[in-house]
Amino acid sequence: MRSYEAMVIVDARLEEGDIQKAVERFTAAIGDHGGKIANVDRWGKRRFAFEIDHQHEGYYFVTTFSAPEPAIEQLKRTLQISDEFIRGKIVRPGTGDAGK
Amino acid sequence: MARDRDRDRRGSKAPVVRRGKKKYCQFCADQQDYVDYKDIALLRKFMSDRGKIRARRVTGNCSQHQRLVATAVKNAREMALLPYTSR
User: Fold this and answer.
1) What is the DSSP string of A6-32?
2) Confidence bin at A97 (pLDDT 50/70/90)
3) B9 touching A, CB under 8 A?
């Protein structure tokens, strides 16, 4: 188990309820892969520094958790596959390394 | 006179010595060994108005911390927290 920090951008065009569901889906996925969530920090809607897929804002949340290493690949996959997540990044806090 | 000195230097190979304020690495002074990519206000200090990362000779960072700043800026860019460029 190692500690990680994930920042995820959820599509802000979704309804408020759907956004919260998307957040829960991601945090639940961490649990499913044997991880433990320490904290979820919802930043809320935020303007992008540049346009992504013709959108100007997204719903940001940051979660710190500990998980076994193989779980990270799976989580990255979920971030890429699901439509509601625009972008995501998993890093090891304190090192700045991308989830390795 | 400054002008005379400049004239004397013409043609000679003597290097022009420019001494400004001594720069120091802010992170070494604070004993920080990690630069958070989420701290946009901090990272902006190391960027130009156009969104480019400032050179080490400008910021005064040590090479280790400059590298951390650079990767942090790049991470922040990926998450659309900072611009890649802004004309």
Assistant:
1) EEEEEETTS-HHHHHHHHHHHHHHHHH
2) low
3) no
